[in-house]
């Protein structure tokens, strides 16, 4: 069983609460000070230019450092989705896929804000569709109830968690999900 076991759905629901508050805070900040500078602009107005400068560079550096990791994870998940997991273990292929993702996003940013807006809209629709499919699958599974003579178990839900669990994904996942004592993936 995965790290959180039957508590995984509850943890997802509890994790939604701080995300909701953050989204609300961003909405309020954007309505009070609408600007593309986000952290830089908000920190500068609230605490002065030095705090704004630090906040702006902090966000920029975090984006640069995180991009490589996110591109690698996106490459792995793309190849996990496309195959049986063996492609996701090929480091050269995953790295090349990540570099391609970064190159495409760089090109989109270079071309201008209009193209970026359209790409963002399409990616948002893809996320909504995936979320809808995922929610529908959960509802169908819950309404269907547990198999005859068994207790209700969320093991089916945990197979999508990025942690080493028994099943077809465990082989592909084990190379990138070395456990860190508590069983959480090392790349988190």
Structure description:
It is a single chain. By secondary structure, this protein is an all-alpha fold. Helix content is 69%, strand content 0%. The chain contains seven helices and no strands. It has helices at 8-32, 39-47, 49-82, 91-111, 113-144, 155-158, 170-174. Helix 3 packs across helix 4 (91-111). The radius of gyration is 20 Å and the shape is extended. The two termini are 19 Å apart. The model is unreliable at 164-188 (pLDDT under 50).
Q: What structural keywords apply?
A:
mainly alpha, extended, disordered C terminus
Query: What is the terminal separation in angstroms?
Result: 19 Å
Q: Residue ranges: pLDDT <50 for 5 or more in a row?
A: 164-188
What is the chain-wise order of helices and strands? HHHHHHH
Residue share in helix: 55-70%
Number of H- or I-type helical stretches:
7
Strand content: under 5%
Approximate shape: extended
Structural class: mainly alpha
Q: Strand tally, please?
A: 0
Mean pLDDT equals: 78
- What characterizes the major β-sheet? none
- The value of Rg in angstroms is 20 Å
